Structure formats: C-alpha cells, structure tokens
C-alpha cells in the first residue's frame, strides 16, 4: 500500500513526499479498561495499517487528505488548531500536530496523504493508527528525537484533549511499540514493556477476530462513565488508581465499598482483569498457550456482567464460538460493539466461523467480518525521499 499512497501524494500535491510511514491497528488479547486504572494490558498489532505519505511545510499550514474519505484536501492553519472543534477524521492527525506544538516541538506544517486498512469503529484502534503514523512521520521529518512511548503519550493527549475521547494509553502504545510475532505486555503506570512471543501457528492454533459491525464511539458517554466510576472507586478506597488494589485484598476492598453496588462491579472487574493479564503472561511464558482460553472467557464474563459493556452481538460470537469448540473467546477493545477474538485449534476454525455466521443470520444481525489475526509489526517508516519505495 506504501507505493499507492506515495502515488496518491504525488497526484495531489504535484511532488513526491519526503517519506512514507505506517502504523497498525491492534487487538487486545487481555486487559480491558485497565489502562486508565494504571493497570496491565496485552495487545498485539494487526497487519492492518494506516499509511501516510508526508512532507514538511514551513508556512504554518497543515494539508490533509485521505483516500478513504470523500472530499478534497483539508487545509488547516496550525495557529487555528483548537481542542474539540473538529468532529471529522481530520481531528486525529490535526490533534497530533496540536499536541506536538503544545509540548513545544517546532512543527511548522505538513502535507499529508493517507489511507488505512484498519476497519473504522470496529474496536481495532483505527484512530490510534492514524495518530501514531502522523506522530512517527513528524518525529522523523522534524528530527524531534522522541521515543516511541513519548509519541504514544502525545497521541493519547491528542485523543483525550483535541478529539475529546477520554481513552487510556493502550492503543497508541500498541501501535507504536508492538513487534511482529509478539504480544506486548504493558504496564500502563510507567509504560514498562515486555514483548511476549506469541506464535500461535507454531502450536497449531489460530486467533480469529470477529468484527460484529456494531459501531461504537468512545466520546459518546458510556466509556467516560466507566472511567469516572473507576476513579470514584479508587477515591473511596483511598488509592491513586485501582491498580493499587491487590488481587488478594479484593474481598476486603469490596466490603469497604458497602452498598456502592455499581462501583463494586467496576472495581471487581478491574482488579480481576489485572490478575487475568498476569495469569495469561505466565501461561504464555511457560508454554501453556491453550490454557489461556478459559482466562479469556472469564474476562468476557467480567466485561459483560460486571463492567456491562458487551452487547448481544458480542455475546453471540463468544457463546457460539465456545459451543463450536473454541478454546476461548471474548470481546476486545472498548466495548458496546466492535470486535471479539476467538482462540481455536487450527482444525476447528472453519466450523467455528460457519457457526458464528449462521448464528448471526439466524438472529437477524448484519453479517460479521471474520479474519485471522497474526501478530504484526508496530509503526515504521516504509520509505524515504521521492524515489525509493
Ligand atoms: C479503547 C481505549 C483504550 C482502552 C480500551 C479498553 O480501545 O482507547 O484506551 O481503554 O478501550 O481496554
């Protein structure tokens, strides 16, 4: 896709870009809604990427164009960029430029043409991919010398403040830092990371992503409500973040919350979910990959019953997959739609896929999109200058 995006740039702007970059979407294996509680997550990168051809400008203008969206080049003045003024896709790249400048980095403009294969609204981090690809491009072109985790932080700020979605740091870090063949065990408190080898094919396993096609949006309230509830829980328990509630102290902590029923459910999810991430890491490290299946299923039940962010389509994927022999399945990402993941023996994949498709048809749901996910590379530069590919 790099060459196509480069050609698109030439067509639009009449000259070649200074480079082409890509940044992937992600699925999260386990660790949901833990990232804004200073907890653990374990995403891996998808082969689906946002690709951007970019050149610097010196006149304070940002020109943006996407091959995926109808309409021409959007031209913005950097001095006019202001939080929560843009409801379009352009808010993601413009937000990154805003965040870089806010942080004091001397970005003076850019021409951008991009295209993405990350399905939008599917819980697969299409927005983080857009943010990270721009951040990496500008970091290289303006020689800012920022590290990957710093780019992720700036992208999160773009999303939180400029776009106005109160998300955590997982998606941007996944897009910026994941490595091929690995899942990323990330401590969102200090962003320390460990790459965990995750080669399912070598063990005769597969991981399917099932996009329910139910669209979700994180700036529409429910996500923020969960986040506020978790923060209230931490305050009631006298800790900085729910990460600080140890799994072994969970019952005592819940007792202290008394009749705050909703907070009890949120706290229970976060504390048990952090524990599930640690269990999955240790199972993978000891080569017991199949044993992570039941942990994924527990995670789904917790998101459905305690965190209450599943939906009938996601539950149907999980229930149908398990009934057709999957080793594990759960919703992935922010919830209220989006995608589920299914861990299965390679030999069972066709049966499970068919069963899910039939169950959706029988329920009268839109046909889901099913694809296999193999851990892919994080963000990177694809080419330099105008002539290279
Ligand atoms: C969305 C957010 C992430 C994270 C997940 C849930 O993807 O962008 O920060 O909170 O939901 O785990």
Automatic annotation (TrEMBL):
Binding sites annotated in the UniProt record for Mg(2+): 127, 159
GO cellular component, one term: cytosol
Gene Ontology annotations of biological process type: galactose metabolic process
Any Pfam family matching the protein: GalKase_gal_bdg
Reaction it catalyzes: alpha-D-galactose + ATP = alpha-D-galactose 1-phosphate + ADP + H(+)
Pathway stated in the Swiss-Prot or TrEMBL entry: Carbohydrate metabolism; galactose metabolism
Boundaries of every GHMP kinase C-terminal domain copy: 283-361
Residues covered by the GHMP kinase N-terminal domain: 92-177
GO molecular function terms attached to this record: ATP binding; galactokinase activity; magnesium ion binding
Ranges for domain Galactokinase N-terminal: 9-56
InterPro entries hit by this protein: Galactokinase, Galactokinase_bac, Galactokinase_CS, GalKase_N, GHMP_kinase_C_dom, GHMP_kinase_C_sf, GHMP_kinase_N_dom, GHMP_knse_ATP-bd_CS
Enzyme Commission number(s) of this protein: 2.7.1.6
UniProt binding sites for ATP: 66, 121-127
Entry keyword set: ATP-binding, Carbohydrate metabolism, Cytoplasm, Galactose metabolism, Kinase, Magnesium, Metal-binding, Nucleotide-binding, Transferase
UniProt entry tagged with the keyword Cytoplasm: yes
Annotated Gene3D superfamilies: 3.30.230.10, GHMP kinase, C-terminal domain
PROSITE patterns reported for this sequence: GALACTOKINASE, GHMP_KINASES_ATP
Residues the entry annotates as binding substrate: 32-35, 223
Superkingdom of source: Bacteria
PANTHER family for the chain: GALACTOKINASE-RELATED, MEVALONATE KINASE/GALACTOKINASE
Assigned protein family: Belongs to the GHMP kinase family. GalK subfamily.
Name of the protein described by the UniProt record: Galactokinase
Organism: Streptomyces cupreus
């Amino acid at each position: 896709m790099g060459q196509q995006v480069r050609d698109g740039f030439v067509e639009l702007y009449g000259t070649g870009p200074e480079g082409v970059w890509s940044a992937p979407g992600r699925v999260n294996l386990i660790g949901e809604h833990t990232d804004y509680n200073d907890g653990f997550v374990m995403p891996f990168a998808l082969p689906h990427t946002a690709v951007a051809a970019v050149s610097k400008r010196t006149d304070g203008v940002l020109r943006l164009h996407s091959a995926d969206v109808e309409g021409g080049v959007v031209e913005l003045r950097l001095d006019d960029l202001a939080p929560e003024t843009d409801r379009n896709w352009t808010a993601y790249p413009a937000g990154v430029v805003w965040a870089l400048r806010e942080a004091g980095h001397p970005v003076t403009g850019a021409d951008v043409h991009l295209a993405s294969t990350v399905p939008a609204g599917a819980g697969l981090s299409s927005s983080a991919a857009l943010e990270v690809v721009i951040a990496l491009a500008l970091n290289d072109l303006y020689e800012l010398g920022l590290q990957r985790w710093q780019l992720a932080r700036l992208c999160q700020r773009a999303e939180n403040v400029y776009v106005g979605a109160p998300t955590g740091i997982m998606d941007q870090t996944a897009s910026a830092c994941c490595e091929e063949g690995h899942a990323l065990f990330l401590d969102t408190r200090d962003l320390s990371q460990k790459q965990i080898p995750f080669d399912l094919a070598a063990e005769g396993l597969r991981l399917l992503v099932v996009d329910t096609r139910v669209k979700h949006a994180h700036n529409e309230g429910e996500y923020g409500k969960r986040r506020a509830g978790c923060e209230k829980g931490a305050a009631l328990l006298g800790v900085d973040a729910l990460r600080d509630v140890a799994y072994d102290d969970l019952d005592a902590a819940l007792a202290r919350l008394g009749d705050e029923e909703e907070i009890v459910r949120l706290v229970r999810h976060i504390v048990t979910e952090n524990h599930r991430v640690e269990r999955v890491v240790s199972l993978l490290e000891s080569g017991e990959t199949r044993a992570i299946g039941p942990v994924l299923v527990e995670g789904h039940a917790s998101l459905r019953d305690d965190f209450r962010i599943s939906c009938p389509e996601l539950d149907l994927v999980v229930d149908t997959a398990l009934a057709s022999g999957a080793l594990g399945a759960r919703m992935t990402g922010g919830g209220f739609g989006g995608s589920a993941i299914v861990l299965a023996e390679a030999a069972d994949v066709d049966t499970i896929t068919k069963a899910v498709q039939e169950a959706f048809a029988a329920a009268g749901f839109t046909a889901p999109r099913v694809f296999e996910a193999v851990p892919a590379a994080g963000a990177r530069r694809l080419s330099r200058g105008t002539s290279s590919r």
